[in-house]
Amino acid sequence: MALPLPPGLTPAEVAFLCEMEMVTIVPRQRLDGLELLGGSIPPLQPPRRTDIPLWLALLLKRQNRANIVPPPWLLPASLANILDVETEMTEAFSSPPPLPPSAKGSEPISPPFQPSCTADASAHALPYHWLEVGEVLLDAASDDFEEPDLVRRLIRDIREVRLSKLRAGVEVLDAGGGVQMNGVGGLEVAEGRAFIGGVIDNLRKLGASKEQTRKEREAEEERNGYSGAGADDYDDDMEL
Amino acid sequence: MSYYDVDAILTDAQKVPCTFELTVPGLGHLEGNPGAEVKEGTKLELPLWLAQMLAITPAGTKPGMITLDLPDSLSQKVTNALRADPRTVELRSLAPHFFNLGTRMLDLFEEEELSDLLTESFKLRAKELADHAHNPRGALGEGAEFLQGLDENERRLFRATHEGAKAVRAWLVGMQKK
Q: What ipTM was estimated for this complex?
């Protein structure tokens, strides 16, 4: 093992990736459009709302040149709603934001490239980077929230509920079973990867001999099936 | 399991009870009287790697030179306890590599019931383990007793789970300090 890091992304790496998300800002100063490798940034004209990447928004916010508009799902009312849904659904996670209807002829856009943290995002669903974006915004732009403490508390609550669901999921893991993991966020995956992967690996080892027996039996049955005559099959089955 | 996997080697070194099916001259030192022979029907504890080879090597008319038994750590007493509540059994004191040993035994014996029981126990214990791993105080909290009873596989799982939670917490704190 060359790197001492476990497989998968570390929380800091996930948070770095989430800075690619688009957020809505209200600029306080004019800024000409920027042509960057990652795409062009439109010219900023106060007080017109503009969508820019989170990293740039954070930079402008720190220099006090812009205010960040929290995405609709980060408002206390929507978070409280989502928390209710999460608490009621004991099996699955609340669904991720719906995909926009794709324009004809173009590829459909899915979460990493779909703007999910802008001001016109869905208010009833948590996007992939919800936890990271939420924490980063609360840290850097808490004065743009009306009730930052309430939002922080709600985020913690939702996180706890979802984590306990992720943990409880191991009980239903089995050869044929699975955990419904739709809507699990990036940071949650980074946190739970070691545990879920480890459990599955160990269960696979424990079940290996049983699986082997089952396969042998199936192969046996298949052979008997191909051998033809029905009466013989019965005899063979009796011996088993 | 890789060739150099220390855990696999240690699992192989655990002893299992065997019964000799034939008389072997000159092996008396195994049961404490050197120079004598090991008689047919003698019960001895042999390391798993040796016992496995002897058990599947045909000798004369017999299918193996020895017959294997389930080790004490998988005896009726233990399975009953696991059936009652897997979380209260101290697997570590039974066998440090309990689940690995169980897997090896399941390879040798066809025991569907035991396989199901081990799988169920592992799941229940993993859930309990995850709850403890998310405790910021780690193994020092109230679950210390349970955590001491974890076998090697579970310990590794616990460490990995704890590291994950710790990394996220560290990131949160680090960001706020900036």
A: 0.80
